[in-house]
Amino acid sequence: MASPGPKSPALQTNMDVDYVISYRFATTEKETAVKRFERLVYALSSVGLATEVRNGNKHSLLVFVKVASEEHLFGEVYRSRVNDWIHGVRSAAPEKETRRALEAEPLHEAERLRTIYQLITNPVTEGGAGITPKEGEWKNVESVFALHDHAYNKEWIKKWSTQYLLKPKDLDEIRDRLGEKIAFYFAFTQSYFTFLLFPAAFGFSAWFLLGHYSSVYAVVNCLWCVIFVEYWKHQEVDLAVRWGVRGVSSIQTKRRDFKHEKETTDPVTGETVQVFPATKRLQRQLLQVPFAIGAVLILGTLIAT
């Protein structure tokens, strides 16, 4: 299957490398380090990732990771989009044919990196290699990181240094390159600092004209805070709908330390689901109640005296 879009500029400047894994063995015996490293390479290859190894510094190896075949990557992206649709994140199901689906909605850099990172770190039961840096059998894996696109970074800095406000097109570009979380951060930061202009000007005027402890200043600040919160709620929803991630929190990712007590079969999908009883979770949460009551009594006593 041919690529549905042009190759990422970042890949062109990074020799097609998607991620780098730092493997450090300074405090590990030679035989153990070799076995763990072989297990690492095998785990990566089992999920369709190709590797190239180079010497690092201070008793370390750098494992350069890329997708072995673009067809495998497109299949993973397609399954991820179908999963979003099943959980209600996407309003419409992708095209049944993978190639047509990716032509209708091209793969951007952030989605590509997110998909490959999930292949590396997701549990084996979810189709990933299950590599968890510095934990369990992967203690020698120091970190997993993507490479910078220095040419794009220079162009980006040059562009942003000549403008004061980000347009929707700029936010879309951030989302395509760095993902929705980073794009939301920039959108919130811009909204926040823009809304600070009024209280800054009003605060100076209040200090100059109204004097200390002005009730007018307090009321206006409270109203302005409420206005900002409601404005950001609407903007957040608009951006989530625009980027197709509204309700994405409904897709839960299993924690590395999660320990289930039993397994059941999902009646809809037929998949095996690991379950931890809700009653035991509630019992653990109730342990906080005595501490909360004690804190309230201590603070109440201090205030009263």
TrEMBL record:
Bilayer-crossing regions: 182-209, 215-232, 286-304
Transport keyword on record: no
Main location: membrane
Record domain Anoctamin alpha-beta plait: where: 16-141
Ranges where the Anoctamin transmembrane domain occurs: 174-304
One term under GO cellular component: cortical endoplasmic reticulum
Subcellular location: Membrane
Keywords assigned by UniProt, alphabetized: Membrane, Transmembrane, Transmembrane helix
Topology versus the membrane: Multi-pass membrane protein
GO molecular function, one term: chloride channel activity
Pfam assignment, any one: Anoctamin_N
PANTHER family in alphabetical order: ANOCTAMIN (PTHR12308)
Protein name according to UniProt: Anoctamin dimerisation domain-containing protein
Species of origin: Cryomyces minteri
